[in-house]
Amino acid sequence: MHARVVRFEGGDADRVRQTIDDIRQRGEEAGGPPEGVPAVGVLMLRKPDGSEVLAITLYATEDDLKQGDATLNSMEPPDPGGLGQKSGVEHYEVGFKADAPEAST
């Protein structure tokens, strides 16, 4: 498994929350990540004050990571600056991942 990690800095807390909500809603409506992004998971972390956001996409293979990276790099952001300024993109090989079992209700 592979991960693409993008760091954004200097955002406004309210605008960051709204942008992440918009991204989540579009993903739910589309049934997953955007076309051309063969991610198996997406995680967005934000500091409460909006000063920093990490967007992590997970991919099954390195080829999927390369395709997703190229697609995401070519896309216009839904709200330019809504997450702050992009300050870095890094690629990782996932050394370990564990998911907790679903809680029963």
By DSSP (H or I, 4+ residues per run), the number of helices equals 2
Q: CATH first level: which class?
A: Alpha Beta
**Gyration radius, to the nearest Å?**
14 Å
* CATH topology label: Alpha-Beta Plaits
Give the N-to-C terminal Cα separation.
31 Å
Strand content: 25-35%
Give the SSE string: EHEEHE
Say how many strands there are.
Answer: 4
Low-confidence stretches: none
Helix content: 25-40%
Instruction: Give the oligomeric state of the chains in this entry, treating copies of one chain as homo and distinct chains as hetero.
Output: single chain
- Lateral strand order in the biggest sheet: 2-3-1-4
Q: What's the CATH architecture name? A: 2-Layer Sandwich
The biggest sheet amounts to: 4 strands, antiparallel
What spatial form do the alpha-carbon principal axes imply? globular
The chain-level mean pLDDT equals 92
Total number of domains = 1
The structure class reads: alpha+beta
What does this molecule look like?
The protein has 105 residues and is of the alpha+beta class. The protein has a 4-stranded antiparallel sheet with strand order 2-3-1-4. The chain has a single domain (2-90), classed as Alpha-Beta Plaits. It is built from 2 helices and 4 strands. The longest helix is centred in the N-terminal third of the chain and has 18 residues, at 13-30.
Which terms would index this structure?
single chain; 105 residues; alpha+beta; Alpha-Beta Plaits; four-stranded antiparallel sheet; 30% strand
List the helices and strands and how they pair.
Layout: E1 2-9, H1 13-30, E2 41-46, E3 52-59, H2 62-74, E4 85-93
Antiparallel strand pairs: 1-3, 1-4, 2-3
